[in-house]
Design a protein that fits this description.
The complex is a heterodimer of chains A (294) and B (328).
Chain A lengths: L2 E2 L2 E2 H32 L6 H18 L4 H22 L9 H23 L15 E3 L4 E3 H23 L1 H11 L1 H6 L4 H23 L9 H16 L4 H21 L7 H12 L9
Antiparallel strand pairs in A: 1-2, 3-4
Helix pairs in contact in A: 1-5, 1-8, 1-9, 1-10, 2-3, 2-4, 2-8, 2-9, 3-8, 5-6, 9-10, 9-11
Chain B lengths: L16 E3 L2 E2 H16 L6 H23 L8 H16 L5 H23 L4 H21 L16 E2 L3 E2 L3 H23 L2 H11 L1 H6 L4 H27 L9 H14 L6 H16 L5 H16 L3 H10 L4
Classes of the chains: A mainly alpha (294), B mainly alpha (328).
């Protein structure tokens, strides 16, 4: 069991693990996008910037308040989520009656502002964020060494995705959410405060992005571009999966991460573009996406 | 839900086209634009004006899609940048004359637009925007790796050469006149396309696609042709820019460039004929004056986006047109 198709096993498993990690971020981010889109009909172009903000808030908490990784995991999503709530209340909410494209343009502009401000303040080179001591080191799995933190990221991302799915599918508030996605006017007629639900949904989606940002901080260096580079790939993931189903986003996210990892092993030149190629194939065969409704 | 346009809710005066599809007000505006093009190089730096004209053509090409078909392409940098690379390659490595190099840029834009457009028009609205953005990013990654683009360095010292092999374009003034003529040809071409029967079908697709389909139009074919035209003109604009500045780089294929062309059209007025030109002039001027402030340019551009979407959706030309109650 030393090599597969001439590929040494440690390389193969190493790339598979990297693929799973990237997949974890694709899943978390596309999940947030799908939840926001389902409720608000706005595609949140600020998502990448909010992911990056999560990482920066974690860094700020550590360096200015001395609050470590575990606090950041709790506080950064709350802080960035609160910012999302303000954004929705003051700006996005004014656009619901207009063409959806305006929501896209607005959130794109907000993303530019955030990214530009952060770059002005911190430069574009990137800041280091240490892996917390509890999660450093590596496990020897026999066929490869697995850094503890990477395993942790995949596990936590999975738990967060499943928790989101449970909230939406199995709780009362989730049922309101699903109903309001289908027919907001009717739900409002039953006395549910739909505008407030929209605000909170946006805040929750943004918090999820910031949570992913904190998870990413120790893996990638914390830099202003970390979100925008990722978010375009996540858009492709969303197109491939279709935004109709929560579990669909999660499966597509992890699946495409693995596909990307395998491409790095077998044909590295195509690793940056493989997801876009998959997107083209899916659009040609199933235009609504793998899990989408037409 | 109405597609974004510069004349949202405007109550127009009845005006008939008097010449080449222009109404009398549009004809006056066109005359003013031509006069500015004639006089400006004697007062302003020609290289700056050429930059404005390249981006004005790019923005007009983009506006053909958003303003008249209602399709928001968020990946127009791909056609602009690839057109620039290929035109630069043709002029520098193959030694072709500038007009042929620019035409090659346009052809590359058209072919790329055909492939991407053919796939992307299967989805509408925000999906269309996301798909075009994703494909443009794929083109960007291709350009990072492909040997002929020169990677991070780009293609440098592209010769301007001699127009038709005889007229040297080394001086900024002669290059300016060529740029102005190409821009005007592109502008008139778009204007003609919009006011043709083909353009009418495009507008009906924008207003109500199912209805256009039920009237017997193959709306996908119309959308694709419009997409290819737009991409080809973006390629011409990119090729022109490479020849003028002698350089083609990754900046021109990056997603920020796609965002900039959206911003130019939005500031000038989506769906107005003159809006993209005014928008390009405003944004390029702003970039020129703010260049020393570095990342603040991004912040200000973002702020303009937000401001335009929240309070100023008609754009500059759209507001003027709304005030005069005429289409501009």
């Amino acid at each position: 069991m030393d090599d597969f198709f001439g590929i040494p096993a440690p390389l193969l498993f190493g790339q598979l693990l990297l693929g799973l990690i990237n997949g974890a971020f694709y899943a978390l981010l596309s999940l947030g996008l799908a939840v926001i889109f389902g409720m608000l009909n706005v595609i949140n172009f600020t998502h990448g910037a909010q992911f990056m903000l999560g990482a920066f808030v974690a860094w700020l908490l550590l360096n200015f308040l001395g609050l470590g990784y575990w606090w950041a995991l709790l506080l950064a999503p709350l802080i960035v989520g609160a910012f999302g709530v303000v954004l929705e209340k003051t700006m996005i909410a004014r656009l619901y009656k207009l063409d959806h494209l305006y929501g896209l343009l607005l959130t794109f502009g907000v993303g530019l502002i955030i990214e530009g401000l952060v770059r002005n303040e911190f430069g574009s080179s990137g800041l280091p964020y240490r892996i917390p001591p509890e999660l450093s080191g590596a496990w020897d799995l026999g066929f490869m060494f697995m850094p503890v933190y990477r395993g942790w990221v995949v596990l936590v991302a999975l738990v967060a995705c499943i928790a989101t799915w449970l909230v939406i599918e199995k709780t009362k508030i989730g049922s309101y959410l699903r109903a309001a996605t289908e027919n907001p006017a009717l739900v409002q007629a039953f006395g549910v405060n739909v505008p407030r639900m929209m605000t909170l949904t946006y805040g929750a989606g943004v918090a999820l992005a910031a949570f992913a940002g904190v998870l990413a901080a120790p893996i990638y260096s914390v830099n202003p571009q970390m979100g925008s580079n990722l978010i375009i790939i996540v858009f492709a993931v969303v197109v491939i999966g279709g935004m109709g189903s929560i579990l669909g986003s999660v499966i597509t996210g992890f699946g495409l991460g693995i596909v990307e990892g395998l491409t790095k092993v077998f044909y590295p030149e195509a690793s940056a573009t493989v997801i876009f190629v998959v997107m083209a194939i899916v659009l040609l065969t199933r235009p609504a996406g793998l899990f989408g409704r037409a | 839900m109405a597609a974004p346009g510069g004349f949202e809710g405007t109550d127009f005066r009845q005006e008939r086209p008097v010449f080449m599809g222009f109404t009398s007000t549009q004809l006056i505006a066109f005359g003013v634009m031509c006069a500015v093009l004639l006089i400006a190089p004697f007062f302003l730096y020609p290289v700056f004006l050429m930059k404005v004209l390249c981006f004005a053509l790019f923005a007009c090409a983009f506006n053909l899609l958003i303003g008249y078909v209602g399709l928001l392409s968020f990946g127009h940098a791909a056609y602009f940048g690839m057109g620039g690379y290929l035109a630069g390659h043709a002029a520098k490595v193959w030694g072709l004359t500038p007009e042929l190099s620019i035409l090659i840029g346009g052809a590359v834009g058209a072919v790329l637009g055909l492939v991407i457009g053919w796939i992307a028009i299967r989805r509408q609205g925000i999906y269309f925007a996301m798909i075009t953005l994703a494909f443009a990013q794929m083109v960007y990654f291709f350009c990072v790796q492909a040997p002929f683009t020169g990677g991070e360095d780009g293609i440098q010292s592209i010769p301007r050469g001699n127009l038709f092999g005889v007229i040297p374009l080394g001086s900024d003034m002669s290059m300016y006149w060529v740029t102005a003529v190409i821009f005007l040809l592109g502008f008139l071409f778009i204007h003609r396309a919009i006011h043709s029967p083909f353009g009418m079908v495009l507008k009906s697709v924008r207003e109500n696609e199912p209805r256009a389909t039920s009237l017997g139009y193959r709306t996908d074919d119309y959308k694709l042709v419009a997409f290819v035209l737009s991409a080809a003109l973006a390629g011409v604009a990119g090729g022109l820019k490479s020849i003028v500045f002698g350089i083609a780089t990754l900046t021109d294929v990056f997603w920020t460039m796609s965002g900039e062309v959206v911003l130019m059209s939005l500031v000038g007025g989506l769906g107005t004929i003159f809006g993209p030109v005014v928008g390009a002039a405003v944004i390029i001027t702003m970039q020129n004056y703010l260049a020393e402030f570095g990342a603040w340019v991004t912040v200000i551009q973002g702020a303009i986006f937000v401001l335009c979407v929240l309070a100023f959706r008609r754009g500059i030309v759209g507001e003027i047109g709304n005030w005069l109650r005429v289409r501009l």
